[in-house]
Major facilitator superfamily (MFS) profile domain-containing protein (Onychostoma macrolepis), 487 residues
Amino acid sequence: MDDGSAETEALVGNSSEDVRSHLDSRNTATTKFKVYKRRWFILFVLCLLNCSNAMSWLTFAPVADQTAQYLRVSLNLVNWLSLVYVVVAIFFSLITTWVLDTLGLRFSLIMGSWLNMLGAVLRVIGMLNCIPEWAMFPVVMGGQTLCAFAQPLVIFAPTKLAALWFPDHQRATANMMASMANTVGLLLANIFSPMIISYTSTLFMLLLIYAIPAIVACFLATAGIRERVPPTPPSASMVTSSSEPFLQGVKLLMTNKAYMVLLVCFGSGIGVFTCFSTLLEQILCVKGYSNDFAGVCGAVAIVFGVLGAFLLGLYVDKTKKFTEVTKINMCLTSLGCSVFAVVSQLSEQKFIIGAVCAWFGFFGYSVYPIAMELGVECSYPVGEATSSGLIFVSGQIQAALYLLLLQALAKPMVDSPLSVCATGADANLSWSVPVLVMAGLCTLGTCCFVGFFHTDYRRLRAEATASPNTVTDQSTGGDTWANSTDA
């Protein structure tokens, strides 16, 4: 057994304080930091988990009207299959941030993978012929709730993984890849949910297919992730990251003006995008646009969002212009949201609606990982999971409020000759006022952020002060997933 293996085994199972004390003492003795090839495997597992969980979240939104028919429930109850993610996140996210920063990344990913897998399987069970009709929706909702409990565990992890395993010049890119995997999951749900329903005319096959990646991710996380921290830190910031106790870290965040502005304003943006993803099909079907077209619009927004995130990740890794990129993108997102509020109420305008969705996605979805990194920078040395988790909680709280508000503002239409909503009259709602309100909320959050957010990059400053010499580790690191030379 090599030195890296012995050191790893000594670290695994210790408390987070012991691990940090070990790293602190080791950092004082050397300025050399190492990176390990197996960081890419852990990143892959997290990407698969995020993708699978996002597919579970948005399974029903692109086919909301058909889901209401199959489950024999109202459209509002179908919306709760998505909204349950928001509600669970609000009450569970603070615990999740403590779990990530105290019990570690490995524990969080394995626990999240099991919750996600069990939820996906329970959803399939809910559609079996032996289940009474009255029990179908409660069983499916139970599975959806388990998946919702898994979401904070995996969606808060990218900043933690980037800080623990990646050097400073790869952190934004690693965070982008893990965060955008969630967006890719939304893309796949927008594409495959309408497609599978149209070919099979049954929810059972749809849910069975979506359970496969959840099962694979659970196996890989359980069998493949063996360490809670790398044997040697990749950068100086890892040594002092999470050095503040959880409750003390929360108190520091609550008194950090820049962080609070980001918490409220970017949280509002997350809320708006949750409303957009959840209600897109319902908004468009009233104007004569099919589920397939709504799915394509959602997919286009996500594809351009992933493209934008990739470009922004590379740019920010080189320039470190977190604030400038976030402000510009939020302004352009507000513009896209305002245009969508107008064109979504027009019929036979597929090209324009598709182009607006692409704009909305390119500048809106893409800024998410950058804003999360910005939250870490302005709140350092508070734990990464705590800083990013509270922003996500803010977004989910605002998303819940926004969804309830927008649905309350949507009024029944007396006459809707263009409607192709499958559930009939109860789905023929006028969304002209709600989409304008959504655009107003997006614009208000952007204006407040641009005007009031100013910060210093604390983590980068700490690393510049340390001036470490990062080297590439050539050991196997002692686990079964890293048998090749690290690079």
The chain has two domains: 35-231, 243-463. Residues 411 and 429 are 5 Å apart (CA to CA). The first strand starts at residue 32 and ends at 35.
